[in-house]
Amino acid sequence: MRAEARRQRRELYLAHGCAQLDGKGTFSWTPDRDRLGALHGTIAGRSARLAVDPGLGSSLISRRFATELGIAGGPPIDVRGPTGPVTGAPATVELQIGGARARDVAVAVVDALPEDLDGVIGLDFLWRFEITDDRGRLRAAPPRR
After folding, report:
1. 0.85 cut: is pTM over it?
2. Which residue, 126, 113, 21, 125, is CA-closest to 66?
């Protein structure tokens, strides 16, 4: 029965195109240390200073950085920022941290981020990976299906 349920879940997953959104590659971070912007990555192919905050549902990019990339965003939406609720403009970008990359990630363009960050990575990027804990160091790798 368990194998049958797994087969059905996989078929459903593939039928709805979810596999196309899976992250590629890997990266790792230590939450307490790296959350404050110690990670470097790319947003839409451009080098960026990033933080990881799994408490955020939406990844965020600063308006300053989005303007440099030519990203305007859509009509205003309310999202949770690192310091509380903020209003942002929705956009879709490719994000990369270390060797991990995901395309078509929905982000919110917000007026400002703490500590001169260009972006904060939230669950909308992280859910595309399988996260494992190795004695406090978290590792994101493509999901096993």
Report:
1. no
2. 113
